[in-house]
Amino acid sequence: MRRRFALLLLIVGIIGHTFGQDAAPTTTPQRRSWLGRILHPFSSEPIPRYKDPRLRGLGLDLQITPQTIKLSEVRQLAIKVTVTNQSKRPIPLDFPTNQRIEIYLRNSTGDILTKWSDNHAITQKSALVLINPQEHVEYNETIATRDLTPNKVFIAEVFFPAYPELRIRQKFLAVP
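-> structure tokens emitted (176 positions)
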């Protein structure tokens, strides 16, 4: 009985792998077979499709530390943005100033409470950032929490001023 069950599982696995493959290679490396989607339904999300073809293949990740903010203890919110090149070609990002990212703290209605650039000097120094395939660039910044009120949900929005399509948001809770 066990042998039949094992043989049945092996056959289903081989058939699923065979039918899950494409005849031509795809440009999106995260495409999975139907069996892989059934066995791992909660795996990573697909790469976003941007209108600007120069940005295709870039993935954004935002981490806020701590996730629940105790306003009596925390004066600065740590923001970490990771830009990952998931394509098979290097992607250049050209910046006209020394500002790479902009951070907005918004309330639940979408009103801007705090801007990261208000407290930082920005100069007209252009630069080119080249992100190689399967590599990433991290930006670690902090932003003041002085305009936050307790027991409310807020939104941290991070975007690249030179590339408005590269935008990510995350909600967090502020407690007393």
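Strands lie at 58-65, 68-70, 76-85, 91-95, 102-106, 112-115, 127-131, 136-144, 152-160, 163-175.
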